[in-house]
Amino acid sequence: MDALAKVTTGMTAEKAVTVTAEMTVAHYVANMPAVYGTPMMILHMEMASGSAIASHLPEGFVSVGMDVKVRHLAATPIGRTVRATARVLEIDRRSVVFEVEAWDGDRKIGDGTHRRAIVNVREFEQRFGVKQLENESGLI
Description:
By secondary structure, the chain is α+β, with helices and mostly antiparallel strands. Helix content is 21%, strand content 41%.
């Protein structure tokens, strides 16, 4: 089965977030500025990338991040809206490369590339010993 049969170059998605105190460098590192943190920007770029192709993957398959090359170009304060975008650049047998950007209004605050591997969830979990969480009523 070709899990990427329905994925094409040019597919896009975006993730918009309002910067909160919990998304800032200061939230995690003492004496740092209260501005949007690079790890949060990368997370939102990854989320946009995954969203761009998720509905085009077969049931039971997902994409997982495996490579990130980004620049964080400008600081963004609490309360501003950041829009992370992703566009499929290339597709190979087992992964997809995205062009990613982050914007604060009209100002680009980040850019780069991100590669996601395509995996069968059940096989992936078995391979790495992932156990499902359970509660009294069954699986969570």
